[in-house]
Write a structure and sequence with these properties.
Number of helices: 5
Shape: rod-shaped
Structural class: mainly alpha
Order of helices and strands: HHHHH
Strand content: under 5%
Length: 408
């Protein structure tokens, strides 16, 4: 394209075409660098070769433009001049012949370089297709990972909710257990106070039993006195009987004293019976109180054991609450990390989609460059044919010149 521009266009269009080709080559190199599986050394070599080729073609085009311009100027200036002008034209023709030969050789080299560039472009296109396939597979895998991450996030969120409910239940249970512990302690204190009261009652009943026994002793003393009075009244009655009418009043008194003694003996017997019954009842009461105190003490021991067990349960519940708090924090951390992983996975999927688009664009550019390389190879062959044609025309002109010199 540059050679044709030099042959058929102005310097400006030739320069614009050269700059466009150089920028296109540089853009292809930068896009290819973004693909990790493409060999950078091959890219660098291709860029270097293509840049050298473009520079050489541009220099050659400038030379052709200069030669054409000089030739046209010389032809215009020397068309009507003498042999010296003719010799100058001949020298220009020889230079043109040399340039055409060089142009043919350079065109052949450029054709080889474009063929190699085309092969490299085809290989790059195949590599890009493989990369595209791999990126699509990775994208499908990332979709599965995203789905699994979403399911895991939902599971962690559900687990965190259940753990929070469990923590609330444990807190309520701990409060109830604490209230039960307080009730058990109150019951234990009240039972202890009841036991102390019963023991005090037992002591009072024992004192009462002692007093009853003392009263029994007093009754015995009174009974002895009553017996003596009864004996004295009997003696008085006997003496009154002996005295006859003189002792009749004394006999009446003795009889009343005897009756009073009998009543006293009956009362003392009833008192003794009541004291004995009281003593038995007090003994039964003391025994019942002792049994009740024993039961209360056993109850207090059991309540203390229950309180100790409940306190242990309360302590374990406290530890369970602490463990649940740690689990809650860990679950929150896992939930946060799952969310980060899910967001990162989504971002990676978006990035992979962009990479797939970029790889597709690179593939299109690679195919376009390959097509351009093939077209450039065809142009090189055309330039080579044009150089051969130019060489043939120059040779024909030299033959005509020789014939003209032989037949002036």
């Amino acid at each position: 394209g540059i050679i044709f521009a030099a042959l058929f266009c102005t310097r400006r269009w030739t320069t614009i075409l050269s700059v466009f080709l150089f920028l296109g080559n540089l853009a292809f190199y930068r896009i290819s660098l973004m693909t990790p599986d493409i060999d950078k050394a091959v890219l660098t070599t291709g860029l270097f070769d293509s840049t050298i080729t473009l520079i050489f073609l541009y220099a050659l085009a400038m030379l052709i433009l200069k030669v054409n311009r000089d030739t046209m100027n010389e032809l215009k200036e020397e068309s009507g001049k003498s042999r010296e002008q003719y010799l100058a034209i001949r020298g220009l023709l020889e230079s043109a012949t040399s340039v055409s030969l060089d142009l043919a050789a350079l065109s052949e080299k450029m054709s080889d370089m474009t063929n190699r560039f085309s092969d490299n472009s085809q290989n790059q296109a195949a590599s890009v297709e493989e990369i595209t396939s791999a990126v699509e597979e990775v994208h499908a895998g990332m979709e599965l990972v995203e789905q699994s991450t979403g399911n895991q996030f939902s599971g962690v969120e559900l687990l965190s909710e259940k753990i929070n409910r469990l923590s609330d239940s444990i807190n309520v249970m701990q409060k109830k257990i604490s209230a039960t512990v307080e009730i058990s302690r109150t019951t234990s204190r009240q039972s202890a106070a009841g036991a102390e009261t019963l023991e005090s009652m037992n002591t009072s009943m024992a004192s009462l039993m002692g007093s009853a026994r003392e009263m029994t002793g007093i009754v015995d003393v009174i009974r002895g006195i009553a017996d003596k009075i009864s004996l004295l009244s009997l003696n008085a009655a006997i003496e009154a009987a002996r005295a006859g009418d003189a002792g009749r009043g004394f006999a009446v008194v003795a009889d009343e004293i005897s009756k009073l003694s009998e009543q006293t003996a009956g009362s003392l017997a009833e008192i003794s019976r009541l004291i004995a019954a009281t003593d038995r009842e007090v003994g039964y009461g003391i025994k019942s109180v002792e049994e009740t105190v024993g039961l209360l003490r056993a109850t207090i021991d059991n309540v203390n054991k229950i309180t100790t067990g409940i306190e242990e349960i309360d302590r374990l519940m406290g530890e369970e609450i602490e463990i649940n708090e740690v689990v809650n924090r860990d679950a929150a951390e896992v939930k946060s990390r799952s969310e980060e992983i899910r967001i990162s996975t989504t971002e990676q999927m978006v990035a992979l989609s962009e990479v797939a688009k970029s790889v597709g664009t690179i593939n299109e550019l690679t195919q376009s460059n390959a097509d351009g390389a093939l077209a450039l190879s065809g142009v090189s062959r055309q330039v080579e044919g044009a150089a051969e044609m130019l060489k043939a025309k120059i040779g024909s002109f030299e033959v005509q010149e020789g014939e003209a010199r032989m037949h002036p």
